Amino acid sequence: CGGTHVPRTGVIGAVLVSAWERFKGGQRLEFLAGARALSRFQLLRDTTAAAVRRLSVLPQDLPGAIDRLHAEARDLRRDVAGLQETLAGYEAGALAERAETWGAHRVVVQALAGDAAWLKALALGIAARPGHMAILLSDSTPALVVAARAADVDRSCQQLVAALSTAFGGRGGGRAEFAQCGGLQAPPELVVAAVRNFLSRPA
Question: Of these four, 45, 78, 146, 187, which has the most CB atoms within 10 Å of its CB?
Fold first, then answer.
């Protein structure tokens, strides 16, 4: 019993069962009645009509059209990821060509536009070259820093990230070979200066 009693069922009007779920060994039903049921139906009607117009299909073909859109979006994301990987390889090579010499190593320290995934791809691409280390940061504040090194480089990316977090706040971590941190409350030029100061210390 829902607690509402009427003299005749016509007073209720339409009854719409909108959802159900298993609950404590039974089933819980959600329903709408009267004007609320009509409002939900109108919403579904308008939403379906808009989707039909956008996708140029019949209402019964909407599920299949949505499935095709999901598949196409998945394929596009895979293609974009492949192109970004290729582009990152070229860009990493160009950055490595301009690397600075720090002792026995070649180091790239630069602020760039891009998100964490892009900076990581570039840093790992540079660090794939023997003797190279990359410390790349976003050109925005708060700053994001990604550091990667080749196996034959004796500087710790994790220690670098920890030093930056101590100096400018933010959070991060990683390993000696790769580390990253975000939320550094400092403009890029100050972060770059701190990175150079860290690299100038004895390993």
Answer: 146
* Beta carbons within 8 Å of 122's beta carbon, 6+ residues apart: 88, 91, 92, 95, 112, 114, 134, 136, 146
Report the distance separating Cα 111 and Cα 95, nearest Å.
12
- CA–CA gap between residue 31 and residue 28 (Å, rounded): 10
Instruction: Give the whole-angstrom CA distance, residue 102 versus residue 132.
Output: 10
Mean pLDDT value across residues 58-85: 92
Amino acid making up residue 178: F
pLDDT 10s digits, 10-55? 888 888 888 888 888 888 888 888 888 999 999 999 999 999 999 9
All residues at 6 or more sequence positions from 35 whose CB lies less than 8 Å from its CB, including other chains: 13
